[in-house]
């Protein structure tokens, strides 16, 4: 008999944190039958062997090279059998049966294509894990922008980041963080999976956009709550900065492009922003906000 939920976890040098996730899943998930698939993106820190030795009930798929998050998620989902799929970052931790809550919500609402939990820091501080869809102003008013850091209460940043939204209630939203989400396998199959052209960043925005375009809903459901230890360094590596901006451009071209002139200006703006952030990085001044 197939499990109700397949949990797909993509690891890359995640040995120090993935054990907390697996242990907490084993301790708190009681209301559903589930399987766990670890997709390792060619880690060099022994993550696959550590998981196999300590958590033999988790199946490990070892990739020969790191082709990015989306490609690994696709491998994991296609190698699983559950009716629903939960994609979790390895730096997630459970202290309740949140997976059963999300699966139950999807069972009761067949028009929902993605359901996501509330995410908290280890100290209980709320993480803003749902957003409005990005647009032309997002580069200026995103959580990483200078204007948002200097004026966090401005209405443009608040609208995009949904910082004024009541995070204690279930609601329809544009998109949710890929750090933790659950969706029906049928939705994944109908959409052809996650877009592997997104190596890192914006893959969750793109997937939720396509869910909406297919006539399904994206739901933020705080009755399920998980803890998330932000994985990206507060001084992100140059490759991370570059991949973030590549994903911006890819998302723009896929969902927002207008005409040659607008595309050229937008592309130039993304390149200029990338160079500015890289310059700040090398000057030692960049600190990634929460």
Q: Would you kindly provide a brief summary of this structure?
A:
With 290 residues, this protein is an alpha/beta fold. The chain folds into 2 domains: 5-128 and 167-228, Spore Coat Polysaccharide Biosynthesis Protein SpsA, Chain A, CATH 3.90.550.10; 238-282.
The ordered H/E elements are: EHEHEHEEHEEEHHHEEEHHEHH
Shape: globular
By CATH, the topology of the largest domain is Spore Coat Polysaccharide Biosynthesis Protein SpsA, Chain A
Q: Do you know the CATH architecture of the largest domain? A: Alpha-Beta Complex
Overall helicity? 40-55%
* Main β-sheet, spatial strand arrangement: 3-2-1-4-11
Average pLDDT, to the nearest integer? 89
Strand content: 15-25%
Q: What features would you describe in this structure?
A:
This protein is an alpha/beta fold. The protein has two domains: 5-128 and 167-228, Alpha-Beta Complex (Spore Coat Polysaccharide Biosynthesis Protein SpsA, Chain A); 238-282. Helix content is 41%, strand content 21%. The chain contains eleven helices and twelve strands. The protein has helices spanning 15-28, 47-54, 69-78, 98-108, 138-141, 146-150, 155-161, 185-191, 203-213, 238-255, 260-282, and strands spanning 5-11, 34-41, 59-63, 84-88, 92-93, 112-120, 126-127, 130-131, 171-172, 175-176, 180-184, 217-228. The chain has a five-stranded mixed β-sheet with strand order 3-2-1-4-11, sandwiched between helices. Strands 5, 6, 7, 9 and 12 form a five-stranded mixed β-sheet that branches. The longest helix has 23 residues, at 260-282. 37% of the residues are buried.
């Amino acid at each position: 008999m197939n499990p109700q939920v397949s949990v797909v976890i993509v690891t890359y040098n995640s040995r120090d944190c993935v054990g907390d996730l697996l242990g907490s899943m084993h301790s708190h998930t009681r209301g559903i039958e589930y399987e766990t698939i670890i997709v390792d993106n060619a880690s060099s820190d022994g993550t696959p062997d550590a998981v196999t030795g300590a958590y033999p009930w988790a199946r490990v798929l070892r990739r020969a090279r790191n082709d990015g998050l989306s490609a690994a998620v696709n491998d994991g989902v296609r190698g699983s059998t559950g009716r629903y799929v939960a994609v979790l970052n390895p730096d997630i931790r459970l202290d309740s049966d949140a997976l059963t809550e999300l699966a139950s919500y999807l069972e009761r609402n067949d028009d929902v294509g993605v359901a996501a939990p509330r995410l908290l820091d280890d100290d209980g501080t709320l993480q803003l894990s749902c957003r409005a869809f990005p647009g032309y102003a997002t580069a200026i008013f995103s959580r990483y922008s200078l204007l948002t850091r200097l004026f966090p209460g401005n209405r443009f940043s608040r609208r995009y980041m949904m910082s004024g939204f009541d995070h204690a209630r279930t609601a329809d939203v544009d998109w949710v963080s890929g750090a933790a989400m659950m969706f029906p396998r049928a939705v994944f199959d109908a959409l052809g999976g996650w877009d592997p052209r997104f190596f890192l960043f914006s893959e969750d925005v793109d997937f939720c956009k396509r869910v909406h375009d297919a006539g399904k809903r994206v739901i933020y459901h705080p009755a399920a709550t998980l803890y998330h230890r932000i994985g990206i360094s507060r001084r992100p590596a140059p490759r991370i900065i570059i991949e973030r901006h590549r994903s911006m451009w890819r998302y723009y071209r896929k969902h927002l492009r207008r005409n040659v002139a607008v595309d050229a200006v937008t592309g130039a703006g993304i390149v200029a922003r990338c160079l500015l952030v890289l310059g700040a990085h090398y000057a030692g001044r960049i600190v990634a906000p929460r």
